[in-house]
Design brief:
Blueprint lengths: L1 H20 L11 E5 L5 E5 H15 L1
Antiparallel strand pairs: 1-2
Bound molecules: zinc ion (ZN).
Length: 63
């Protein structure tokens, strides 16, 4: 019973820490967002963390 309790505590603590660090829901890395300005002042949200994860994925697939 006590073991079950501590397990729940650890999960809750980890969740709180991840929330503070803002984990990306897409790539599960540390969230990193940048605003890219396109033509005519149009801005686009780009997830740098996902792009990094994608490029890492591509390089590992090539290797
Ligand atoms: Zn991401």
């Amino acid at each position: 019973m006590a073991g079950k309790m501590s397990k729940t505590n650890v999960a809750a603590r980890r969740q709180a820490r991840e929330g503070a660090k803002k984990t990306c829901p897409e790539c599960h890395n540390e969230l990193e967002v940048a605003m890219v300005v396109e033509g005519r002042g149009k801005t686009t949200m780009v997830r740098l963390c996902c792009e990094r994860a994608a490029s890492a994925d591509a390089s590992s697939a090539t290797a």
